[in-house]
């Protein structure tokens, strides 16, 4: 039984660690999307000023 319990604990730890990675990458992706939107707006404003 101990072997099964040890394996189970390792799997739970793996899941927990990767769940945290998913949250981090999700936040990073959202931040990148916000930066992209801001840069697009800035470039559109620059194009309007040039006209």
- Name the poorly predicted regions: none
Which structural class best describes the helix and strand composition?
mainly alpha
What count of helical segments does DSSP give?
Answer: 1
In total, the number of strands is: 0
Overall spatial form: rod-shaped
Summarize the helix and strand pattern as letters: H
In which range does the helix fraction lie? over 70%
Euclidean distance between termini CA atoms: 75 Å
**Over all CA atoms, what is the radius of gyration?**
22 Å
Mean pLDDT: 82
Major beta sheet summary: none
Please give a structural write-up.
With 51 residues, the chain is mainly α. It has one domain (6-50). 96% of the residues lie in helices and 0% in strands. The radius of gyration is 22 Å and the shape is rod-shaped.
Short description:
By secondary structure, this protein is mostly helical.
Main attributes?
rod-shaped; single chain; mainly alpha; 96% helix; 51 residues
Secondary-structure topology with pairs:
Blueprint: H1 2-50
